[in-house]
Structures are given as C-alpha cells and as structure tokens.
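User: My collaborator sent over this chain with a note saying "see what the structure looks like." That's all I know about it. Can you take a look?
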Amino acid sequence: MALIQSALPRWPGWRNLPRDTRDTLFLLAVIGWTVLPHGNHLPWWCAALTALVLAWRAHLALANLRMPGRLPIGALLVVAVALTFWTEQTLFGKEAGVTMLVVLMSLKTLELRARRDALVVFFLGFFLVLTHFLYSQSLLTALAMLLSVWGLMTSLVLAHMPVGKPTLLQAGRLSARSALLGAPLMLVLFLFFPRMGPLWGMPQDAMGRTGLSGTLRLGAVAEVANDESIAFRVRFDEGVALNPSSLYFRGPVLSVFDGIEWRRRSLNMASLARRDPDLRTFGTGVRYEMTLEPHRLAMLPMLEITPDLPDAAPRVDGWNMTLRPDLQWQSDRLVTERLRFSAQAWPRYEYGASMSAVERQEYVHLPEGFNPRTRAWAADFLLESGLPRSDARGLAAALMAYIRRAEFSYTLAPGPSARDAVDEFWLDRRYGFCEHFATSFVVVMRAMGVPARVVTGYQGADPRPVDGYFIVRQSHAHAWAEYWQAGRGWQRADPTAAVAPERISISRNLQPTTGLVAGALRTMNPELMAELRAGWEAVNNRWNQWVLNYSRAQQFDLLRSLGIRAPDWQDLGLVLLGLLTGTALAGAGWALWDRRRQDPWQRLQQRVRDALAPLGIEALPHHPPRHLATLVRERLRDRSDLLAYELEALERQRYGPQARRRPDPRWWHRFAFEAARLRRTG
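Assistant: Without extra context I'll predict from the sequence alone. Here is the result:
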C-alpha cells in the first residue's frame, strides 16, 4: 500500500497546479462529460477503454510523466477497430461511426504535445456533440451539449492564451461572450435556412419505440406496456370534450392469421389509393392537432375515424399520406422524425356495409391444426346461443356477456404462450392483456362464421391536459376487435372493457414499474409527482413545438408576416441572403469600432509619437514612456523638464504598482499643451 501511495501523484490543489496540467485536466473533464450521454449506446469495452485512457492521461499530467509513443497508441487503435467490427459487424454506419469517434478522441488525448494536437481534440469534441442528436433531440440533451460546447470553447480560448495563467473563469466568460455574439447569426439561420427534411434522422433509424408493429403475437404488446414515454400529443378545438371511452386511435389493422402471428393485408398501390365508398359519417366532426413522436412504422395512429376529405385528412409537407380501405392511415415512408399536423374525425360512423364473397372468406379463415379446442368450444357456444351465424351483433353481445361472467382477469404478466396460445388463454389460464382478449375474441367469432379482425392502436390519454395537449403514452397501447354485420358494416368490440372497464371508461393506462426515488415520491405525495411530471412535459412540449417542429410551412408563415404575400423558396433565399449580408456588415462595423476602443494605450502611444515628431524626436512603437523621456532630455536639454516629467508619469500609470486599465484623459491634455508650447517657442 505504501508503494502504491508513493507511486501515485499527490493532489497539490487546483490553484497550485501548473498551467499545462490544469488546462489538460479541464479538457479531460469536458471530454468525459461529452462522452457520458453515449454510455447507453456504446459497447461496454468502448466505455471502459475511454475511461481508462482518460484516467491514464490525467495521471500523466499530474505526475508530469512522458507521453506514450506511437507504438502503444497504434496497438490500442488496432484493437479498437477489431472490437468495433466484432460488436457491430461493420465499420460503417451510425453505431460503428460513433464508437470509433469516441475511441479516436480518447486516444488523441495521449498525443497532446502541441497546440495543433489540442485543436484536433477540440474539433473532434464538437463533432461528437453533434452525434448525440442522432439519438435524442430532447431538451435535456440540448442543455447537456450546450454545457459541452461551452467547455470546449473555454479550452479553445485557453489554448490561444499562451502567456501567464488566466483563470478558467476568465476564459469561460470570454467563450460565453463569443457564443452570445454569434447567437444572432444562429437565430437567423434557424429561422430562414431552408428545411430539406429530417436533420438528425438516419435512413435505418426509427427514433424512439412504439407499442405497435405491423404484426402481433401474444405477448408482443405487453413487452412495452410499462413504457411511459410519449407516443403523441393531441389537442382538440376549444369546447370539444370527448369521453375517454371515445379516444380510440387507429393503428395497424390485422386480418391475416397463420395460427401464430397476425399481419396486415398486403395491398397494391391501386387499392391503397381507393377510398372506401361505404364510409358514412354522422354528427359534427372533431378537429384536433397531433404531434406524433418518431416510431418504426409507416403509419399514423389517427382518431377514429379520420376520413380522406380535403379538410379532414392529415397533411405534412413532403409526405404522402394515404388512407387504406381498412381506414388505417399509411405514410409513404417510416416515421423517423417528429410530425405535427391537423385533422378532423367523426366518432360516429359506418363503413363496409357490403363485402364480397372473397373478402368474407378471408375474414373468417382460421388455419388448420391451430387452437382446435377453442374452435370446438365456439361451435358449442353457437349451438347453445340459438342465434344464426348471420346475427353477428347478437353473437358478439353474447360473447361479451360470457367474458363478463366467466373468471377472466386482466394482467400485465400473462407469461409465455405455447403454440396454441388462444386455447391456452381462453380455456386454461383465463388471464392476460388486451391483445389476448382481442385475438381470442376474433378467433371465436371466426370459428362461428362471423368475419372479424384485430385492430391495434392506442386507447385513452392522460386525464389532465399539459399545456393544452392530452398526452398519449406507450402504456396506452391497445388492441381491440372488429366484426362485420351485414348491412351495418364493421363494428367495434372491445372485450377488454368487459374485464377491466376502468381501462376504457376512465382511460386508466398501465402503471409502470417505478424506480426507487420515483416510487418514494409517488408513495409520499402522488400529486406532487404528477405535477412535477406534468410541468416537465409542458416544457418539453414547448421545446418540441417551437424548436424541433419548426418546419417549412412555419418559415413561409413568417415570410407572410413580413409582408410577402405568396412566399416561395426564392423569397426565402433572398431574405436569408439579405439578413446574412446585414449581419456581416454589422459584424464588420462592430469589429472596426471594437478595434479602436479595445487598446487605448496603443492609440495614446501613437498620439505621443505624433506629438514628439515635430520636436525632432524619433520615437519607435516599441519605445516605452521612460525611454521617450530620456530621448526628450537628450534632444531638448534645459527645456525638457516638464515634458519628460509627464512621460515618466505616464510610465507609472501604465506599469507602476497602481497601474490603470485606461490612461487618464487629463494627462493627454497636459502633455499636448506642453508639446505645442515647445513647438511654438521652437
């Protein structure tokens, strides 16, 4: 232990550190802070290697030891490349690229020998800051990266202050002032630079997660039931009040069943473009605005039912939104960016009153060899009910009544399912999540000869709006059923409401498993926990609406507010060019003004030289006032006393114990008066 303690350098105190050591430790701390948010994305070996290299570099700085040579650094780089290829199976793409960037920056700290090396580290750090927004554009990420940029700029300022030992506070103030001076230009570019698509999206990315997918297996939705992240926000027109039981947001409609998995129908583009002629709406439509978070599907979870009408359909610049015949809204590509749009829905509707024989056969199809006990049970139930197969509404009501009186229960942990999952749930376990009830209901209805299908989406919302928006979370992910009644079309049936009515009637979403601190706060004061979360989500919503959702349409609206009646890209470019030109001219004017005011001593020295030149005294720029006093005495002899005295007084003002930041203006008046008198008496 004594040997280890003697080998480790002692901490002399932050103020007693040499300048190079202090600046190096500060830079290492900034790098560590910048890499830290990537901890969830980096392979374990990369995080460990980065921590070890930064600690090694800090030890070298504290102990004033020699830097390692190129051989060990090159060996570490080769190992890192091999490990990156082993973990990512490629050296290209986002994950591999971020991993290699972190490794390169940490290894570059072992080569911090000159300012050139430091500049490479600084700009690698700035680039690493940008990579965080490939994973998250949240307000917390922005604040954390703002602190990183400030730290990197402070290190950059220190690297350009080679003389003395300026404090970190002084360098931090200078970097903050520089950033504030660039803020107007940043604002101009943000407001008027053309939006050409998702800035931070990657083609293979689906930022965020969703409780839905294009397929469904028993247990799939339950895997994300405890996810309280926000799926989307929805705001209704003032005065509109919908019951929680009416908040069904339609997602993928699953009608193809192979015995294990439910899938959507495969439709060609011609059928996608066809509107359902049987759709009829009743009553007054409900206008709403939705802010949809990114997910991994090419679909929009719209309020039932949002038709494809000019004033009702969702519209987003650059996107092609299509309403499928099953009334699911589909986009032309994966939603990998946050979308904001308005639409109109009609909670009361009818559609699909007619159905072809081919479609009917598809919607009653059940694969042979799967769930035989449930199919036999359905045949017996049909006989006992005494209802004909054509009375789909009566059979659905009888089946819902059976679910209510049977010993079914609602749970978030149904456990793994066997091959015949419906048999196991319907006849043995009798407990499950909404997808168990929906899929089993559809299987039983099909076994009785009634066309039916599964609909997935979201049901309900948080009871209280935040900043005017109702929040729909991933824990609101839901599955329900639809059956077909001749002459009336498709009818919604939600068997979950028969077992857990509070899930539908009061929109009670699934309660997540909380951590220790959040659980303690929720136990001691649940209202405080709800208020804190609502406040934070309101701030995030403002961030999303004002910053992340700033789009081309809002840019054109801004141009209209500036007096341009029909703005286009050319107008946007001209306004941007004009503002940049004005900003550049203002910056040049400020630089000129700042140059004249920044060093008053140099300006005074030039004026002193100009005043001495007519007296035959050749003063050079590097001559201090004391040397000028000597030249005055040598040139003017007995007439030099007062002028030399003033020059010596200037020397004390500039370099004495009571040195001034700016020269005394009264001194110049005395000096200029005496120099003019000497010229006149010549």
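A starting point for your reply to your collaborator: The chain has four domains: 2-160, 215-505, 516-548, 600-681.
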